[in-house]
Protein: Olfactory receptor
Organism: Grus japonensis
Amino acid sequence: MEKSHTWISMPLCMMYSAALLGNSVLLVTIVKERSLHEPMYIFLCMLAVCDLLLSTATVPKTLGVLWSLSTQISFSGCLAQMFSIYFIFVAESAILLAMAFDRYIAICDPLRYTAVLTRSVVGKVGVVALIRSFCIMFPAIFLLKRLPYCGHNVMPHTYCEHIGVARLACADISVNIWYGVAAGFLSAGLDAISIAVSYVLILRYMVAVIGNFTLSFIDDT
């Protein structure tokens, strides 16, 4: 699709510009407005930073490929890009989980909200998200470095991803495949399940509250 690269790059460039502008405005607004210095908005701030970093780690290089400005990348640069993408993605997943927990406490146990989600707790959640992301994704670098690369060196994507790089090797990549599956399940997989459970609990609580209110209204009438 080389002949269409210019047309493909236009919406991609517009979306990247919108992401930069939207997230930057959100960050500036939350930082300047003291009334927004609450756990929910701090988590939203973290999410905006992750969105900025994730899009910046992928889109500029993709645009370089589409515009034929930079169609090559060093092996070390490829590993750095891959690590950045997955590191930020896993951290973003953890922040989404923290936001779901924040909503659960705010709705189901509002009287304890300020006691549970203090600024110290929010800061620790951010640190834990970064440490977990690093511990999950750092081994992938060594799993790729140990492989011998003696075949072609053309990536089938506009950015570096784990299995895409591993398939360039002329050796068995079963360990890489299984590690990728395990890492995905232990990060985004478990986070998605936990988020779903939290919103099911919120929904059940709201149904119970509405049911009790309806019964009380019927008794009063």
